[in-house]
Write a structure and sequence with these properties.
The chain is an alpha+beta fold. It has one domain: S-adenosylmethionine decarboxylase. 28% of the residues lie in helices and 33% in strands. It contains four helices and six strands; from the N terminus they run αβααββββαβ. Strands 2-3-4-5-1-6 form a six-stranded antiparallel β-sheet, covered by helices on one side.
Length: 151
């Protein structure tokens, strides 16, 4: 579900959490984890069909997203339409960034965006969700964020 809030505050809180308060899974208890990066998966439902079916719109999205979250793009994004089976047909996008990558699949059948952002540089996942949902005209979204550990 869409949430609102102070984006700057959210970013500060998440950065603080990355540096001082990492989640420790059952498997890693007793080990001081080193946070390698943040992975966010955002599913955006009831998106604008015209926007998710336009490769140029998707390319512009990646550029604007990288600018907003201050990620340096590495090369051009790959935007490819594929899927013989109607259930999976749509564009897929991959954008390498200097600190990892951004990828997405745009499902034509359900007008859903499946967006993933992984970076070892801190960013605000909520800002990504808000921007992407607005950009693609989504009605609602679900986000999962995990910390990736280096050991």
């Amino acid at each position: 579900m869409k949430t609102s809030g102070n984006t700057a505050k959210t970013r500060r809180e998440f950065s603080k959490k990355l540096k001082k308060e990492p989640d420790i899974s059952v498997e890693n208890r007793g080990v001081e984890p080193d946070i390698w990066g943040i992975a966010s998966s955002i599913d955006i439902y009831e998106s604008d069909p015209g926007r998710i079916r336009d490769a140029d719109v998707i390319r512009r999205f990646v550029i604007e997203l990288c600018d907003r979250i201050k990620m340096k793009r590495f090369g051009e994004s790959q935007v490819v339409h594929f899927g013989e089976e109607e259930r999976v047909a749509g564009y897929s996008m991959v954008q390498l960034i200097e600190t990892s990558l951004i990828s997405a699949h745009f499902a034509n059948l359900t007008n859903t965006v499946y967006l993933d952002v992984f970076s070892c540089k801190p960013y605000d996942p909520e800002a990504v969700r808000e921007f992407a949902e607005e950009y693609f005209g989504g009605k609602r979204s679900v986000m999962h964020v995990i910390e990736r550990l280096s050991k």
